[in-house]
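Priority: medium. Attachment 1 of 2:
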C-alpha cells in the first residue's frame, strides 16, 4: 500500500466503486459529445442560459405589477427595488412601451416569448445533435465490427451483434437526452 494525500491506496486493486465508474463514464461520454460537435453543444448550452435569463426577467417584470396593487391593499415594493424598477422603466422607454401595468404586462409577454424562442432553438439543435451522434456511433460500431475480422463474426451470435448496433445506440440516445435536460 502506498500513501497519497493522507489516504492509503492499494496499487494492485484500483478503486472500482460504482460512483467512481459512473463519474469516469460520464466524463468520457461528455468528452465524446464535445469532440463530435463542440460548437453545436456549446451553442445549445448558451441558449439554455439565455432561456433561463429571459424567464428570470419575466418574473422580475411581475414586481411592478404587484406593487401597482398597493393602493388597493396589494403588495408593497421590497427594499432596494428602485434599481429594478428604474431598469425596467428604461427598458420600457427604449422599447416604446406604455408606462404602467400595460407596459409591464407587455414586457412580460416579450420576455416569455423570447424565452420560448430560445428554448425551441435549443431543443431543435440538441435533437439534431442527438440524432447525428447516434448515427455516428452506429456507423463507428459497424465499421469496427467489420474490421474485427471474420473470427469475431463466427464466434458471436448474430443477435448479439445486431443488439449492440441497435439497442445500445438507442440507450446512448436516451442518455444523451437525459444529459441535455439536466
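Attachment 2 of 2:
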Amino acid at each position: 500500500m502506498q500513501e497519497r494525500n493522507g489516504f492509503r491506496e492499494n496499487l494492485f486493486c484500483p478503486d472500482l466503486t460504482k460512483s467512481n465508474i459512473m463519474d469516469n463514464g460520464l466524463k468520457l461520454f461528455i468528452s465524446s459529445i464535445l469532440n463530435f460537435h463542440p460548437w453545436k453543444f456549446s451553442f445549445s448550452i448558451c441558449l439554455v442560459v439565455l432561456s433561463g435569463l429571459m424567464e428570470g426577467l419575466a418574473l422580475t417584470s411581475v414586481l411592478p405589477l404587484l406593487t401597482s396593487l398597493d393602493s388597493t391593499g396589494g403588495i408593497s415594493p421590497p427594499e432596494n427595488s428602485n434599481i429594478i424598477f428604474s431598469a425596467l422603466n428604461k427598458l420600457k422607454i427604449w422599447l416604446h412601451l406604455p408606462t404602467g401595468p400595460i407596459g409591464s404586462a407587455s414586457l412580460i409577454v416579450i420576455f416569455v416569448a423570447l424565452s420560448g424562442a430560445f428554448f425551441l432553438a435549443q431543443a431543435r439543435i440538441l435533437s439534431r445533435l442527438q440524432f447525428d451522434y447516434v448515427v455516428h456511433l452506429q456507423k463507428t460500431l459497424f465499421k469496427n465490427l467489420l474490421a474485427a475480422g471474420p473470427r469475431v463474426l463466427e464466434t458471436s451470435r448474430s443477435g448479439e451483434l445486431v443488439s449492440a448496433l441497435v439497442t445500445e445506440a438507442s440507450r446512448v440516445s436516451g442518455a444523451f437526452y437525459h444529459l441535455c435536460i439536466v
